[in-house]
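Archive entry: two folds, one per protein. Generate the first.
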Amino acid sequence: KQEGFERFETMVAGIRTETVRRLFMAQIRKEDKLERKSVSKNVATSGGGDASVKKQPMKKVKKPGRNDPCPCGKLRPNGLPMKYKDCCGRGE
């Protein structure tokens, strides 16, 4: 047990040493982000097309859950709303 524990401690110390070594060798580059922003602006302005036409963002439509009431509004004979899985969601 003692030998296993010593090996584990050695492994943890090695991981710490390697992590610190890699962190100190890492270099942060801020120029890349600035270049990308300027490139994207240049591409947008040099499209050559009609600049006044903007694309509308797509709206994300949330799919109803299986046990949620069906969005079509269908009711059961007892007056309660149908579950999505029993109505429009059948077969999915």
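Generate the second and append.
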Amino acid sequence: MESEALPRLRGDLEILSGQPDATLIYDPVQRTLFELHPEDLPLVKLLDGKHSLPEIARGLRRPLAEVQELVDDLSDAFLLEDPEQEEMLRALRRRNREEDRLLAPVLDNGPLPDPSVPPIHVVDDARHTCLRCGACCHYAVPVSPEERTRLEAVDWPAGTVPEESGGLFQLRPGLQWGRLEETIATRSDPTRCVFLDENNLCQVHQRLGETAKPFVCRLFPLAFPVLVPEGILFSLTFECPFIYATYDTGEPFAVRPELLRALAAEMEEIYILPSEIDLSEGKKLAREPFLQWEEQLRGRLVAPATRPEAFLETLAHAWGELDAHEVSPSPTPEAFGHMAQALREAALSEQPLLSETPEGTEGSRQAGIVLEALKERPLRAWEPVPWEDGPEADRFLVRFAHHFLGGKQYLLYRTAWLGLRALAAIVLLSRCDASFLARQAGRERVGVEMLNRAVARWCRLLDLRPIRLAYVRAALQG
């Protein structure tokens, strides 16, 4: 008769310090966290395949039933070595590799050679002034160990630490980014940074100065820069719902080159435009002719808000000039409906993640309403919208497209084709979303502020790993 195997934790797990008096086990395969109570940590250390459960219980003077319960919990979470679970884990590893492959960007990344040398460029000489609305302070912001140490050393006012998190920072599994991240803790629904006070002001900025804020906070509303042949390229991320309000009147980023250079210098790695661009699977184009093509495309964009069919035709025609042997990046209504259904299914399964926006679960619900409507009748996305100012709505979406294209944000997708289809999808989704927002507000006309809110929502959602995966798979299926 075979003897029962002695319990052993899987060798690929990470034991981490969590909040005070807590220890976490991170499973990089399932991308999950398992929390341990302080009294259980000694038990886990003895799960080394050398001790039986009775031996562990006797050595720690703990009831055998308690030891058995913890081991059962760990086994149920697939954290113990078990030949019967190995095939399942292998399948998960294969799935993770496939997901990482689908999400790998066109852009390379590497260290910035010398940030003091390359010229600084900003797409369209963009302007922006912070309105202190606090909308950007509703996301889970990743922090470096140095940033965490600096902020933890401050004696923050009572009540800064939310009860639900138990600390200023929290470890998050790889659901959002595909890797373990430490982020600033947030309050719930809508998600709200613990450092954001009741006046929508950042306590870190007020008490320690702007340079003390985490890097991601200081960068916003700029997207991560890209190293291109001409220098370091910055663009705006339209996840800010008030970009429209200061684009013409705000302070030009171009007058702050040293600030932008300093931000780039802080990055251990920077996105780099490769010498060859992946147009589609198996099809590449040298960088210089690709950049010429992209510049020509940006100059042709017209009327995405008032005449989406003309905007999509421009994308299709430009793509045809590349002879990429791929269907048009402009989706047909049938393909768009299929994509809406895939995004809807992903959204339903990721409600907590989708709620991490300035609008909380209300924003998540709004995304679901839009996707449900487009799944049933995708042609809604092409229907005329009663804009308050059609030319201004067109101007706003063209600006968004310029930053999405010129800032190389679309090359954060696996191929240029996927990035262009994402641009088309965001435009179509945002037109429909803005119409719904106006209707819900009892307004007959759709203002550009509603369009900005919608664009911010869909830019944000397509940045989330589960939603991005659903989009990529749906797009590749047709």
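Annotation attached to the second fold: The chain has three domains: 1-103, 108-271, 277-477. The radius of gyration is 25 Å.
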